[in-house]
Design goal:
heterodimer; A: alpha+beta; 5-stranded antiparallel sheet; 4-stranded antiparallel sheet; about 30% helix; globular; B: alpha/beta; Cytidine Deaminase, domain 2; 8-stranded mixed sheet
């Protein structure tokens, strides 16, 4: 998921220049993974597009807001149409009531300032987070009120009500974990946006009337930003159990500790994967391709007699506990579509995480010496019916 | 059931919204003809419609409660500068456009906003404008503010023009969708006309001058407003004679028609000038936005 995803519709006319500059600035400078949806024109002649939908991250989900500019009257500040569920979110009315409208970037809108849109989006998102906090604060549930009072001060936390037609209402917390810059753990890290791990906590609301019953445990889930998946998979983390009567403020420190260890381990795993790839060279020759940053893949060219083939190594995050998955690809046999024949993934060859990298490579070499004969036969069988 | 005092919000169901077919057509034409988005004020009348008399029935055992008078808001026209956000600043504070009369708000019942191909939900600025306008308009003390949102759109090959619109009433702090009836001519709409009562005064007519005094210049001017060159003495003659000289009447009527014709020509020329100026402005705005 690239933050500057191309607009969905390619047939839309070009954006009006002044609007285009602001949108480009937003996409290239925002620390949030904002996405552009539809872009369309509001001019009678339809020659210039001047309105678009932005998907703005909020509480581990996206809200979709329509930004309405006017290409033909560029000096008029843009207007925003919020989602159908956000009728109660009225930022400009609040400004008018509190008399602090001059704080808003709309009060001194300059259509020639490329930073106009990014300021507006961030201002509205900040107000939207506050709006949802206020909505959750009035929930009539003793536990949620307590949780809010203890964790709401944590920086970057977002909360919202989860609307549902058939179930009782729930409150969702998105708690950012690990206050460290994950990109610093990876040398030469290519991530453009800051990566984060969040704990999603969903509390079912039980009205305060039934004090006697013990509130049920919340639903917990770890969620990471997409780029982080190449370093660390949150799906593999086993969450500590939630005991009865626990609260978030108790739960979080233990979770953060164990998560911290796992992340440090994951970044150490990069080093051992790198050494594995480096160990391939003396035995197999220099790899044709290798992932230099996360060291998750490598490809080598190998020859047995006159049969030459590629071996793709997919190195798992848990390396060396888990062995690399090998895929063989013939450079001499193609199927009917003209694509090279590849073997099914192989991950049942002899392996021990206690071997050092050189021994791992030698054992794989030994295994492949036999396996390539099977693969050669597999390839010949695959193309025989065509003859 | 008594009529609630003005402070209690009127439920949307109780308010009957209507717009005359011609006013709606003019409004939609304005929205579609504008080069970009536009907004403006809506004028009309608001009042409590007396409930229709209970249908005569042979059975008088059902003692029906007298139905409560319903609030009715009917839109009869609009006023717009064909320009987006002409009524408010970027934060949605109402400020009347300088060109409009200084007291446009006296008879306004609400406002409209047109956004091409945009969702039919009030935007953040429209909501703020509704709140601010409602606080400004004198009329809104007695009825909720009316807001009509129009979204004209055209199919890519220009073969289909659609005009989606939705009416809202400002109830509490929300704009609540309400149904808007279109009033046309015909027996089906008789109710609408039964409730009509003229508000304009009788046209001014000069009184007979006291003996020895001539008509003042002001009085002559007032007559000229209606008919050019029709002497005040002749008008006096028409009024005075019980026989009602038909020829004089005809002459006065023809004079009125001539006056109307002259006004129509003037409007035509000035409209052409306005259009030329608008096109010049459009070119300048194009240049400003770097879209030449």
């Amino acid at each position: 998921m690239s933050p500057s995803a191309a607009p969905a519709s390619t047939s839309s006319p070009p954006l009006a220049p002044l609007v285009d500059v602001q949108l480009k600035y937003l996409l290239s400078h925002s620390k949030l993974p904002i996405r552009v949806g539809q872009i369309w024109s509001g001019c009678r002649n339809g020659r210039h597009a001047d309105r678009f939908t932005l998907s703005i991250p909020f509480c581990l989900d996206y809200v979709h807001w329509d930004f309405v500019y006017n290409a033909l009257t560029p000096k008029v500040a843009p207007d925003v149409v919020f989602g159908p569920d956000d009728e109660g979110f009225q930022p400009l009315v609040d400004y008018a009531e509190n008399g602090n409208g001059d704080k808003s970037c709309l009060a001194r809108w300059d259509c020639r300032d490329p930073k106009g849109l990014i300021a507006l989006v961030h201002e509205l998102r900040g107000l939207y987070i506050e709006y949802h906090k206020k909505r959750v604060e009035v929930v009539d549930d003793a536990r949620v009120v307590f949780e809010l009072s203890t964790v709401l001060s944590k920086e970057g936390i977002e909360v919202c009500m989860v609307p549902s037609a058939d179930r009782p209402e729930e409150v969702k917390f998105a708690v950012p974990l690990l206050d460290l810059d994950l990109a610093k753990l990876v040398p030469g890290c290519p991530w453009k946006l800051p990566q984060k791990i969040h704990l999603q906590v969903i509390f079912p609301i039980s009205r305060s009337s039934n004090y006697s019953s013990i509130p049920s445990a919340p639903r917990l889930k770890l969620i990471s930003t997409p780029d982080l998946k190449s370093l660390f998979s949150v799906e593999d983390v086993k969450l500590p159990p939630w005991s009865n009567g626990m609260c978030l403020a108790e739960y979080l420190p233990a979770l953060e500790d164990s998560l911290n260890n796992l992340v440090v381990e994951a970044s150490a795993s990069i080093g051992s994967r790198r050494r594995f790839i480096e160990a391939l060279a003396p035995t197999f020759g220099r790899p044709l391709e290798a992932d230099p940053i996360f060291c998750r893949r490598a490809t080598i060219l190998s020859i047995s007699g006159i049969f030459s083939f590629l071996v793709h190594f997919a190195i798992p995050l848990q390396f060396p506990k888990q062995q690399p998955v090998l895929t063989l690809q013939s450079s001499q046999h193609c199927n009917a579509d003209g694509t090279p024949i590849t073997s099914p993934p192989i991950n049942d060859y002899p392996w021990s995480p206690r071997w050092d990298q050189v021994e791992m490579v030698e054992r794989i070499y030994d295994f492949l010496t036999d396996e390539c004969q099977n693969f050669r036969k597999f390839c010949s069988d695959a193309i025989t019916p065509q003859k | 059931m008594a009529i609630g005092d003005t402070a209690t919000p009127v439920p949307a169901a109780a308010a009957k919204l209507s717009i005359s077919g011609a006013a709606l057509a003019a409004l939609l034409h304005r929205c579609a003809a504008a080069a970009a988005d536009c907004d403006g004020l809506l004028y009309g009348r608001a009042g409590h419609v007396p409930a229709p008399p209970a249908a005569l029935s042979d059975y008088d055992d059902r003692a029906a409660a007298p139905p409560a008078p319903a609030l009715s808001i009917s839109v009869s026209g609009h006023c717009s500068l064909s320009h987006p956000s002409s009524l408010s600043d970027p934060l949605g504070h109402f400020h009347p456009p300088a060109d409009l009369d200084s007291s446009p708000s006296l008879s306004a019942v609400g406002f409209f906003s047109s956004r091409r191909r945009a969702p039919l939900r009030p935007s953040m600025r429209e909501l703020a404008l509704a709140r601010s306008l409602s606080a400004t308009l004198a009329a809104c003390a007695t009825h909720p503010l009316l807001f009509i949102l129009v979204s004209p759109s055209v199919s890519p090959n220009l073969s289909t023009h659609s005009y989606d619109y939705r009416a809202f009433l400002l109830l509490g702090d929300r704009l609540v969708p309400a149904s808007l009836g279109v009033v046309n001519v015909g027996p089906g709409f008789r109710d609408q006309y039964h409730t009509f009562s003229a508000e304009s005064p009788m046209p001014w007519l000069p009184a007979a001058p006291a003996p020895g005094h001539a008509h003042s210049i002001g009085e002559q001017k007032a007559v000229d407003e209606m008919v050019d060159g029709f002497g005040i003495g002749r008008l006096q003659g028409v009024l005075g004679s019980a026989a009602g000289q038909a020829a004089e009447m005809d002459g006065m009527y023809a004079g009125m028609l001539r006056k109307l014709e002259k006004l129509a020509r003037e409007v035509e020329t000035s409209n052409r000038r306005v259009l030329e100026q608008e096109n010049r402005n459009l070119v300048l705005r194009f240049r400003y936005a770097g879209m030449e």
